[in-house]
Amino acid sequence: xxxxxxxxxxxxxxxxxxxxxxxxxxxxxxxxxxxxxxxxxxxxxxxxxxxxxxxxxxxxxxxxxxxxxxxxxxxxxxxxxxxxxxxxxxxxxxxxxxxxxxxxxxxxxxxxxxxxxxxxxxxxxxxxxxxxxxxxxxxxxxxxxx
Length: 146
Description:
Layout lengths: L5 H16 L13 H8 L5 H9 L2 H8 L4 H13 L6 H14 L1 H9 L2 H6 L25
Helix pairs in contact: 2-3, 3-7, 5-6, 6-7
């Protein structure tokens, strides 16, 4: 891997931070950024996958998403951030719940990022993205049919 084109690099950073933090690089606090990972990504020392891993295993991620929510919500957030979807089955939730309990959140993140599903959809250089549609709802929560 060589040095990344500046505009491509900026697009990747913005996409990763938006996927994980819900806001682009200009909107997030400086302390949420993974500056060491950014430098390695820019120079081609790590892949997009490894940059995503660095953010998702960071203390900031743990404080914002792991420590702040009950385990089922943690699993849902990890799936949304890293696979672009919600967990589909109770078995999936149970499986990752066991990993979280027995091996910790870093191993749960690694298991998702090293999964065949992650590989199939994102590989090493595609930023995870929302793969399931989010339906527009009105203020009562029902689906708009306009």
